[in-house]
């Protein structure tokens, strides 16, 4: 076992142990008594149900991550990567098509093996707690649409990356970086109008008192209201949410139909104010810039390690190639990715506080607080997560912490 194998194996095990510890502490932090702040929204039965949901999801997540880790290690140390490479090379498809086929087969195998877990999560766990609204037909169609988009959009991008690193000796990483950046911007631009409607219906919010209140608030904060849409989130789940997506003329705010059903008009305006806050604070652009910079660093490092024989030896490969190099480097890059991911979670939680502050100061505090409390109940959120679990996994601050900060806003 060489240094590459040691680094990759250590990263896999450390990541698993850290998340195992976080899960353990998170379950230990569940409090039997309902926090006083939520006494007007939760009853004891609902609170117990939310805790049980946290326990079940955590244990199932541990089972899933354990299975994935064992599967990867068995495939790795049994020489599976080289075995599959020999098979695909034997078909003599040409360099690019061989790479596409090899990576495609690995992704397909992973999807098939994860399918039972996805089915159980959707039709057993989510069903048990009253969330699931997905029909078998919708589930299958989602899989097929996702597969089709992966082939249609991901295939050409992957082929381009393979071509850059196969045929361009110098500055291939720059071409790859430029291609991925352009692809990312393209997807951000077209997703609201071309891609997302493949999975959900987005209907403009109808005229009425709610739309009038939203229009008045948008005018107040000088926000060009291109579109507020109602998304049929109830098609798959009874959980509620809202989000901001796209940019330029294609930017839109989407409110789940379940959100509209369960909240007052003032609470909905407060939620929308929070989403507008993300736009006004330029959080989307900042995240995009960070992501683009991270991608450039990753491709630069890839160009350094792609021709390192030790990386291929770590996986018992008999021949070096760009397509397996991409996979192995992705695993070697995991320590950096882990650190960046934690940093992005911290930054994301900071952004959420800023968006909450924007909503509280430009609209009102109490509707935002009430919306957060109702959302936590409707989604059976864990009200008392452990700080270490939050540090590793939460993109949003715990709801009780958000409420305290909102109430303290001047």
What does this protein look like?
It is a single chain. The protein has a four-stranded mixed β-sheet with strand order 1-2-4-3. The chain is mainly alpha-helical and 410 residues long. The chain has two domains: 3-189 and 291-407, no CATH class; 202-280, Metalloproteases ("zincins"), catalytic domain (Zincin-like, 2-Layer Sandwich), CATH 3.30.2010. The model has no long low-confidence stretch (mean pLDDT 94). The protein is built from 16 helices and four strands.
Feature tags:
410 residues, mainly alpha, Zincin-like, 2 domains, 16 helices, 4 strands, 71% helix, globular, Peptidase_M48, protease, hydrolase
Task: Summarize the SSE layout with pairings.
Layout: H1 3-28, H2 44-77, H3 80-89, H4 95-128, H5 136-167, H6 172-195, E1 202-204, H7 209-220, E2 228-231, E3 242-245, E4 252-256, H8 257-262, H9 265-280, H10 283-305, H11 309-313, H12 322-332, H13 334-362, H14 365-378, H15 387-393, H16 399-407
Parallel strand pairs: 2-4
Antiparallel strand pairs: 1-2, 3-4
Binding site for Zn(2+): 274, 278, 352
Keywords: Endoplasmic reticulum, Hydrolase, Membrane, Metal-binding, Metalloprotease, Protease, Transmembrane, Transmembrane helix, Zinc
Domain Peptidase M48: 204-409
């Amino acid at each position: 076992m060489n240094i590459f194998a040691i680094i990759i194996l250590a990263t896999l095990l450390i990541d698993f142990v850290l998340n195992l510890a976080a899960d353990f502490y998170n379950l230990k932090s569940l409090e039997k008594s309902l926090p006083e702040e939520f006494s007007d929204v939760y009853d004891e039965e609902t609170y117990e149900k939310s805790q049980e949901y946290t326990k079940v999801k955590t244990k199932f997540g541990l089972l899933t991550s354990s299975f994935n880790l064992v599967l990867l290690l068995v495939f790795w140390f049994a020489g599976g990567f080289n075995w599959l490479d020999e098979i695909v090379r034997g078909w003599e498809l040409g360099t690019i098509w061989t790479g596409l086929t090899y990576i495609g087969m690995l992704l397909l195998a992973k999807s098939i093996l994860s399918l039972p877990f996805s089915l159980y999560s959707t039709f057993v766990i989510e069903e048990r707690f009253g969330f699931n609204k997905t029909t078998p037909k919708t589930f299958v169609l989602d899989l097929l649409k996702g597969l089709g988009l992966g082939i249609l959009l991901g295939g050409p991008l992957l082929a381009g990356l393979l071509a850059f690193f196969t045929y361009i000796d110098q500055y291939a990483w720059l071409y790859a970086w430029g291609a991925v950046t352009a692809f990312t911007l393209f997807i951000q631009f077209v997703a609201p109008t071309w891609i997302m409607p493949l999975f959900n219906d987005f209907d403009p919010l109808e005229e009425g008192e709610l739309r009038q209140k939203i229009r008045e608030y948008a005018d107040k904060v000088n926000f060009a209201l291109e579109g507020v849409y109602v998304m049929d989130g109830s098609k798959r789940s009874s959980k509620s949410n809202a989000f901001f997506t796209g940019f330029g003329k294609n930017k839109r705010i989407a409110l789940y139909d379940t959100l509209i059903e369960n909240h007052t008009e003032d609470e909905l305006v407060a939620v929308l104010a929070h989403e507008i806050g993300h736009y006004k604070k330029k959080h989307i652009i900042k995240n995009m810039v960070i992501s683009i910079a991270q991608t450039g660093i990753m491709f630069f490092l890839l160009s350094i390690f792609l021709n390192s024989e030790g990386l291929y030896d770590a996986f018992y490969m008999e021949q070096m190639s760009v397509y397996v190099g991409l996979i192995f480097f992705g695993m070697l890059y995991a320590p950096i990715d882990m650190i960046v991911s934690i940093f992005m979670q911290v930054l994301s939680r900071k952004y959420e506080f800023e968006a909450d502050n924007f909503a509280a100061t430009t609209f009102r505090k109490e509707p935002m607080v009430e919306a957060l409390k109702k959302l936590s109940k409707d989604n059976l959120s864990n009200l008392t997560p452990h700080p270490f679990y939050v540090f590793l996994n939460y993109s949003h601050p715990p709801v009780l912490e958000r409420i305290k900060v909102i109430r303290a806003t001047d």
